[in-house]
Every structure is written in structure tokens, then in C-alpha cells.
């Protein structure tokens, strides 16, 4: 007795056609570039450093009171240490090893000094991790952006400027915005390719 086996090939599903991109108006392109440039500011600040500052600032300033010289000195020390951290972390970078694991290191004139000594950067990629003048430029901008974030902190401003004059009050309000816009323009013109400790990583 013969058994007939009916083997049916599945029908090939037609893939839906991708929708065509609608052309953007000049205003939409300008807004897109503006938002993209603003998003680049996140690359200028290590998130961990900013988080530590925003957490410890109310404690060190006693909610902006700063009754003693010690509280002002410790607050100034916190501000200085966080600024130095932003500067130094700007020289860190990362790469993915053969297993796809992210490895961190410090940029030098000879390449990337990897913190895990058992892993090496591929020889053909050493050149792109070398320390350059643009890294010092980005480190300086990182300090400026951190200063703008610090000036937005009410506790810090109340600690060092308890009773500011009208002119000083206007300057304290306008200065962070001016620093942010300036750094946004400069960073959009000279973007950073580094993805160091505390900075957002790329997909690759």
C-alpha cells in the first residue's frame, strides 16, 4: 500500500515595501541638527561624576546654608574634585575585545593603555586611540559644561552667593545657558570619537 505524502512548499511571503522617506523642510533639518548637537553634550560629561556631585552637593552645603567656613571649603573641594574628574576621564576610551566585551583604557601618545593588562588593542587600530590636541580641547569643554551644571544647582549658588545683587543674579542665570550653547556649537563642530568611563558607548 503506497502512502502518498503531499509536501507543500510554503508560499513565499511578499515583504512589504518600505515607505519612502518624505523630504524634510529646511526648518525640520535645522531642528534635527540642533537637537542632535544638544544631545552631543551628554558625551562631554561623565554621568557618574555629575551624579556624585548632585547627590553630595546638598549634604556639603547643608541645603545651601553654609554657615561655617568648613562647609564652604568642603563644597569648594567637592567642586574641584568633580571638575578634575571630568577633565581626566575625558582622556579615557574603550573598545570591544574579540569576545565583544567592553575594555577601558587611558589614551596616551603611544596608543591606548588598557587597564586590564591581559588584553591588547589590535595593532591596526592603535593609531586611532592616540592622544591628540583635540582631546585636551574636549577636556576643557567638559569642565565648562560641568561648571554650567553646577551653576544650576541651587544649593551651590546659595552657599557661595547667599545675597547676590541684581546684576550678579542675572549673570548667574544667563551664564549656564551661554556656556551650554557655546559648548554645544563647538562640540558639534569638533565632535569627540572617544567613549570613555562614564560616557555613552557606541553600538560597535
Provide the helix percentage: 40-55%
Q: Report how far apart the termini are.
A: 60 Å
Give helix and strand order, one letter per element, not per position: HHHEEEHHH
Largest sheet: 3 strands, antiparallel
Overall average residue pLDDT: 77
Please give the oligomerization state of what you see: single chain
Family: Belongs to the plant DMP1 protein family.
Membrane topology: Multi-pass membrane protein
InterPro entries: DMP (IPR007770)
Subcellular location: Membrane
What does this protein structure show overall?
With 204 residues, this protein is mainly alpha-helical. It folds into two domains: 44-91 and 133-191, no CATH class; 92-130, no CATH class. Helix content is 49%, strand content 8%. The chain has six helices and three strands. The chain has a three-stranded antiparallel beta sheet, with no helix packed on it. A hairpin with a 2-residue loop joins β2 (102-108) and β3 (111-114). α3 packs antiparallel against α4 and α4 runs antiparallel to α6.
Summarize the structure.
By secondary structure, the chain is mainly alpha-helical.
Write the layout of secondary structure elements.
Elements: H1 26-39, H2 47-61, H3 69-89, E1 92-96, E2 102-108, E3 111-114, H4 133-151, H5 154-160, H6 166-189
Antiparallel strand pairs: 1-2, 2-3
Give short descriptive properties of this protein.
204 residues, mainly alpha, 3-stranded antiparallel beta sheet, 6 helices
